[in-house]
Amino acid sequence: MGEPYISAGFGAMIRNTMVVASVSRKAGGLFESVRRLALSLRSCGVSVEVMSLEDRFTAEDITQWAPISPRVFRGPWPRTFGFSSGLTRALLSTDADILHSHGIWTYHTIACYLGAIRNRKPYMVSTHGMLDPWAVRNSYWKKLLAGWFYQDSILQRASCLRALCESEAESMRSYGLRNPICIVPNGIDIPTTSRDQAGPLARSQDVGCSDPPPWSGRVPPERKVLLYLGRLHPKKGLPNLLCAWDAVRKRKTPGAKEWSLVIAGWDQDRHERALKAQARDLVDSVHFLGPQFDAAKAAAYSHAEAFVLPSYSEGLPMVILEAWAYGLPVLMTAECNLPEGFAAGAAVQVKPDREDLVRGLEDLFSMTRSDRRTMGAQGLALVKERFTWSNIGADMRAVYEWILGGGTRPNCVVTT
Q1: For a Cys staple, 33 with which of 21, 186, 240, 244, CB 3.0–4.6 Å?
Q2: Distance between CA atoms of residues 395 and 374, nearest Å
């Protein structure tokens, strides 16, 4: 790999330290994806230590990492950058064989780099879509300065970068990075059968799900629900979705009156206020729920009829995999980086603009119930085949072994 790293040796127990800015819901999709990767690696014989920073949700969410006990450090300053001397000291003294940083642009990536250099250990960086063109353009000048001061050097010196999909790998190359890249996606846990053993493909209205929908009392029970679940952020394309929703209702598109749009998620930078103002004339069919977690989140997927993500930029969105795992048909953009979903007939492709979203909504509303079930079934089959955590954990362990000099280059690693 070009550096005199101290190797764990082929076949030995690999000691891995993962570094992430948050181990709570505050991390958004990274909370689920990094947590499950850590647990999957542990099942594959990797000793995993997780280090992170404390936030207001840490105490409530940290137990979900069990049996891993993340080490959480106080004192992030400024809060958006996340400097922590405690995190730095811990990483400088780590005995890990390999370090793995998740996410970029904030201080935890610097601390991970310092720990790797101090201990002559290799490190990886998973950018989680943060080098996609839209993401780089967003807050461009801040990221240009961060790249110049520290981030570009850290990325360039990584033993390997992890991309969630081929599109993300292309974005890394376009950014100027020439490191080896492993293409290892996020995974999903397939829901267990419902309490009446009807299985995840059965919609709640068919089987009488024990947990009521989180929109109960707000959405008429006869309405079909198109669900959005995730961060409320401009990159998600929700303003254009609301414009399209308004348009199809004003056009009196057949079936439009039978649907409600439910937007569930946590606010970022007061974007929710702007969305609610935009939707003030749609209160009979658009509903904002706020964040949904655990049982409420599962109930939302179980009671929804379809899922939508009209995003401008993603790494590989966990919410799409979750929607497919619950047997939901999906409307999504190419920027969600799941082209296999279109190929498998599991999703309707839309562009993140008003007119094409109108077309996508009209396509959804024209589907029969059987059509929607078939599309959802194809999504479930896809995640079972391609996105299970057991396979992903094994692939990542193979990458670690290769970096440490203990095996041939895995098929998921590209070097050009």
Answers
A1: 186
A2: 30
